[in-house]
TrEMBL record:
Family affiliation: Belongs to the peptidase M50B family.
Molecular function GO terms recorded: metal ion binding; metalloendopeptidase activity
Organism ancestry: Bacteria, Bacillati, Bacillota, Bacilli, Bacillales
A Gene Ontology BP annotation from the UniProt entry: proteolysis
Protein's name in the database: Zinc metalloprotease
SUPFAM superfamilies named in the record: PDZ domain-like
The protein's required cofactors: Zn(2+)
Length: 420
């Protein structure tokens, strides 16, 4: 249950930050964002604020921002339709009742002759024979009421498709970009709170049962040599210590400008991957809590994680790629449980790495992913006009189906690995 809660919270935060990036930039570009959703499936929570409906859905497997004009509009009113009109104080149409007109006795029922809800925002319709053909002006924030569910109309200047390729690209790229920003901020905060490991030959915190502590050594001691071998970095120091399991070795070090020495009895630990016995003295690396160091650490960590993921994905083209290199929901669930068992810090670090992974995967040039949409926008910029929305939507649909199939294959592989 703890692992499940950790997965739900972690994915909820990662998805929320990703989708908030889309939402923020899209709204700045003047795009009407109809819905901001966390999860898929049935809605379990709904609230509306500033034109956008915010929902939490049952299946915590992703999320989306539904922008007007990104896909073909679902509701279309054609000549001959009977609709109900509700007016606001200035005489403009505030609501258009598409069906269930009997539930809105205040609405004026008309028969549509011509209608334009994108550019000129008007309705030409017949109310009765005496009044003849009338023209009604529609408010730009008018709601279409279908099955008692309101949905705001989207004038052309509020639609995704009307924006320049640059504005579209920024709205799409903002989601993955926010995942990188989130990871960077998390690593910086961890660096400030826990300290940034330093690569110098010195003692950081000593454990309570540390052989070095029992020998009289202290945090901050600067090591100059071990077992007669000079050392300058943390890497060199730990390498020498590991070469002497269950041995008494001499440390030369300085403390407050004074040259000292101590004999330390190491203990051994087995490395699971190789089965090798290595020496330990119960000391952690020295750390620095400086803000600038934490900022540099955050950037370095994001770059390192990105490099590992990109190198792994590049194996697809070299033929060295394996399904064991990727994980689906089951694998991520198991890794999250392992990270949670190691403590909150490890779990947060894992979440930051997963955020980078989410950003990179979403930028892959595959249909249904942000990278696929960016590919279409780039093609539009070169071609000078957008791809037909119906055709693009069909390509994204098939792309989503293939991605879903891939998730099933990876999940099956995860299950096999888990039980084997």
């Amino acid at each position: 249950m703890d692992t499940f809660i950790a997965v739900v919270i972690m994915f909820g935060v990662l998805v929320a930050v990703h989708e908030w990036g889309h939402l923020y930039v899209a709204k700045k570009a003047g795009i009407l964002c109809r819905e901001f959703a966390i999860g898929f499936g049935p809605k379990i929570f709904t609230t509306k604020r500033n034109e956008t409906v915010y929902t939490v859905r049952l299946l915590p497997l992703g999320g989306f921002v539904r922008m007007a004009g990104e896909d073909p509009e679902e509701i279309q009113i054609k000549p001959g339709y009977e609709i109900g009109l509700v007016f606001q104080g200035d005489g403009r149409v505030q609501q258009i009742i598409v069906n269930n007109k009997s539930k809105h006795p205040e609405a004026k029922v008309v028969s549509v002759e011509r209608i334009d809800l994108e550019e000129r925002l008007f309705i030409e319709a017949y109310a009765d024979e005496e009044e003849g053909l009338q023209t009604f002006h529609v408010d730009e924030k008018c709601d279409l009421i279908v099955d008692e569910q309101p949905e705001q109309i989207a004038p052309l200047n509020r639609q995704f498709r009307s924006k320049s390729p640059l504005r579209k690209a920024l709205a799409i790229f903002a989601g993955p970009f926010m995942n990188f920003i989130l990871a960077f901020v998390v690593f910086v905060l961890l660096g400030m709170i826990n300290g940034v490991p330093q690569d110098n030959a010195a003692f950081g915190e000593l454990t309570d049962d540390s052989p070095a502590k029992e020998a009289g050594m202290q945090q901050g001691d600067e090591i100059t040599s071990i077992a007669g071998e000079p050392v300058d970095t943390w890497q060199e120091m730990t390498s020498v210590i590991q070469e002497h399991p269950d041995e008494e070795i001499n440390f030369e070090f300085t403390r407050g400008g004074e040259q000292l020495s101590a004999s330390v009895e190491t203990y051994s630990r087995t490395i699971e991957a190789s089965g090798e016995e290595v020496g330990m003295v119960g000391v952690r690396a020295p750390v620095d809590h400086a803000v600038l160091g934490a900022v540099q650490y955050g950037g370095d960590q994001v770059i390192q994680v990105t490099t590992v993921i990109v190198d792994t994905l590049s194996m697809i083209f070299t033929g060295d790629f394996s399904l064991d290199f990727v994980s689906g929901p089951v694998g991520i669930y198991n890794y999250t449980g392992e990270a949670a068992s190691m403590g909150m810090v490890v779990l947060i670090q894992f979440a930051a790495m997963l955020s980078v992974n989410l950003g990179i995967v979403n930028l892959l040039p595959l249909p249904a992913l942000d990278g696929g949409r960016l590919l279409f926008i780039g093609y539009e910029a070169v071609r000078g006009k957008p791809v037909d929305p119906q055709k693009e939507g069909m390509i994204h649909f098939f792309g989503f189906a293939l991605l879903f199939l891939l998730i099933l294959v990876v999940t099956w592989n995860d299950i096999n690995n888990f039980f084997l």
